[in-house]
Amino acid sequence: MKRTLRSLGFAELRGRRALVRVDYNVPLEEGEIREDSRITATLPTLRYLLEAGARPVLMSHLGRPGGHPDPALSLAPVAERLERVLEATVRFVGPADGEAALAASRELETGEVLLLENLRFLAGEKKNDPALADRLARLGDLYVEDAFGACHRAHCSIVGVPRRLHPAVAGFLVQAELEALDRLRSDTESPFVVVMGGAKIGDKIGLMEAFLGRADHILVGGAMANTFLRARGLDTGASLVEDDALDEARKLTERGGDRLELPSDVVVAASPEDGEAARVVAVDAIDEGEMALDIGPSTRSAFAGALEGSRTVFWNGPMGLFEKPAFAEGTRAVALALAEACRDGAFAVVGGGDSARAVREAGVASELSHVSTGGGAALEYLADGSLPGVDALDEAP
Ligand code: ADP
Ligand code: MG
């Protein structure tokens, strides 16, 4: 178990500068923040720190500036938005490792927050440069990790800084992630149903293997299912298939036996733009030139049936090309079935950036036990049980 922010009493926090790694990598459109859930998600940690009389110094990355300052990727608009949603003064200073930032951290008044400029303006961030870690570590008297989605990266602010600055603890977001994911790794109540989909099968095979030993059902949809169908010798037309993963898919099919469930029908079209002409076919009737872009209605009811009565669920990867309404029904059906299972007392976790967006769009995110904010990080933690950014934190005493 890792030491948590919650375990630090107000007495240990009062007056101290808490250097918090947050994930404010928000979607920007012409300099405007399109969606601010990554900012609002950090409010509980920040409010706790402010209430305790600590002085939060926040650091984050935004986009891929490539180790140089890029005004289009400044965190300045984030500072403004944070000030509005937190209802506290937010000072904003760059560069993150400069003397002005250090002075600002020391002059910060109780009740105020300091946000540092984009970490990835600095060449040493991605290289985990020791000299940069030393300079950043001066900005705090303790370290709080609240950027779960970045914890699989061995970057300076994620690994180098907490190795130098103690106590180094998990913030509220990271704590919630670890608790939910640890529960999936250990005491899963049966029936345990895993739903896998999306596109990047290569990244997800390790995780499927890890779950294969313990899950009662593994339901496979999305583009991932196409690779499995092809591995079984079916003709998948022009569907997205990962040829490099066919061997692995064959092995998993053998090991999984009946527990691995593939679609029986799919929604096909000539292209993703051709939603109007979409039709439902059995998986052995996909024509040459057609793409399978969603699971069909029989598969939706079969998957919903498997989720009904489940006690534990993990879902990663949309069931189709859900960005287009014509191919979003399968994903929506799984989201609704998960919410229903939770109403019946199941413990259900969703991981993956696109899957998380799909459950928000279906309006059921708040009904689920946990929606992970970290796509790649969540999958890696579930498969391996460790992450560089988590390993770097102090053990609970
Ligand atoms: P997550 O972010 O939840 O881990 P992925 O990134 O692996 O999920 O996959 C999401 C992407 O997969 C989406 O952009 C979706 O459109 C795409 N996708 C899902 N099913 C299909 C399909 N049958 N054909 C093409 N793309 C698909
Ligand atoms: Mg994705």
Which whole number gives the mean pLDDT? 95
Q: Might you state the CATH topology name of the largest domain?
A: Rossmann fold
Alpha-beta classification? alpha/beta
Largest sheet properties: 6 strands, parallel
Explain the layout of strands and helices:
Layout: H1 10-13, E1 17-21, E2 28-29, E3 32-33, H2 37-40, H3 43-51, E4 55-59, H4 76-86, E5 90-93, H5 99-107, E6 113-116, H6 124-127, H7 130-137, E7 142-145, H8 156-164, E8 168-170, H9 172-185, E9 192-196, H10 201-212, E10 217-220, H11 222-231, H12 246-256, E11 260-261, E12 265-269, E13 279-282, E14 291-295, H13 297-307, E15 312-316, H14 329-343, E16 347-351, H15 353-361, E17 370-371, H16 375-384, H17 388-391
Parallel strand pairs: 1-4, 1-7, 4-6, 5-6, 7-8, 9-10, 9-15, 10-11, 15-16, 16-17
Antiparallel strand pairs: 2-3, 12-13, 12-14
This protein binds adenosine-5'-diphosphate (ADP) and magnesium ion (MG).
Q: Mind explaining what this structure looks like?
A:
The structure is a single chain. The chain is an alpha/beta fold. It has two domains: 171 residues, Rossmann fold (3-Layer(aba) Sandwich), CATH 3.40.50; 196 residues, Phosphoglycerate kinase, N-terminal domain (Rossmann fold, 3-Layer(aba) Sandwich), CATH 3.40.50.1260. Helix content is 39%, strand content 17%. It has 17 helices and 17 strands. The strands form four sheets. A six-stranded parallel beta sheet has the order 5-6-4-1-7-8, with helices on both faces. It has a six-stranded parallel beta sheet with strand order 11-10-9-15-16-17, with helices on both faces. Helix 10 links the parallel strand 9 and strand 10. Helix 10 packs parallel to helix 12. The longest helix has 15 residues. The chain starts with 9 loop residues before the first helix and ends in a 6-residue tail after the last helix.
